[in-house]
Amino acid sequence: MKKSSILLIVIIAVAIAMIMVIYTDSSTYSTFSEAKQKDTELYVVGVLNKQKELHYDPVQHANRFTFYMYDNDSTECQVIFNGSKPQDIERSEQIVLTGKMEGDVFHASKILMKCPSKYNKDEVEIIESQAAPKTALAN
């Protein structure tokens, strides 16, 4: 075989391996315990702790919403979302957070909620919220 053919095969193999690593790593959900060990942005799925207070004061900090959530391992963690409080978060059946841990607090950049639909009894409505841009936080 020619050296160029071998080189082409190696490049294709490396590209396929990189694609597989990207897709397998990004499509999995993590827990708060795993998020503490990693310094990257992860997806954490869980449910809202409705026994604890949701804190959102638009007069003091319009782009700061804090709450507590249980992950799939029943580990509770405080979540800080740099955005306004998503509508109907109290009604959510499940929450998917995108973000990372800083100390013992999870900082979410996105919140995706699975809520019961208000129109059809057996359907589910998906609502997504994103954090405010960094420039808006400076004001």
Describe what this molecule looks like in 3D.
With 139 residues, the chain is of the alpha+beta class. Helix content is 24%, strand content 36%. The chain has helices spanning 3-26, 32-37, 134-137; strands at 42-48, 55-56, 65-71, 76-81, 94-102, 105-116, 124-130. It has a five-stranded mixed β-barrel. A hairpin with a 4-residue loop joins strand 3 (65-71) and strand 4. The N and C termini lie far apart (64 Å).
How would the blueprint of this fold be written?
Layout: H1 3-26, H2 32-37, E1 42-48, E2 55-56, E3 65-71, E4 76-81, E5 94-102, E6 105-116, E7 124-130, H3 134-137
Parallel strand pairs: 4-6
Antiparallel strand pairs: 1-3, 1-5, 2-3, 3-4, 5-6, 6-7
How many beta strands in the DSSP annotation? 7
Strand fraction equals 35-45%
Strand order of the largest sheet: 1-3-4-6-5
- The helicity comes to 10-25%
The multimeric state of the shown protein is single chain
- Structural class call reads alpha+beta
User: What integer value in Å does the Rg equal?
Assistant: 20 Å
Mean pLDDT: 83
Count of alpha and pi helical runs: 3
Overall spatial form: elongated
Order of helix and strand elements from N to C terminus? HHEEEEEEEH
Please summarize the sheet with the most strands.
5 strands, mixed, barrel
Amino-to-carboxy terminus distance: 64 Å
Uncertain runs: none
Notable characteristics:
139 residues, alpha+beta, single chain
Quick overview of this protein structure:
The protein has about 140 residues and is an alpha+beta fold. It is built from 3 helices and 7 strands; from the N terminus they run ααβββββββα. The longest helix has 24 residues.
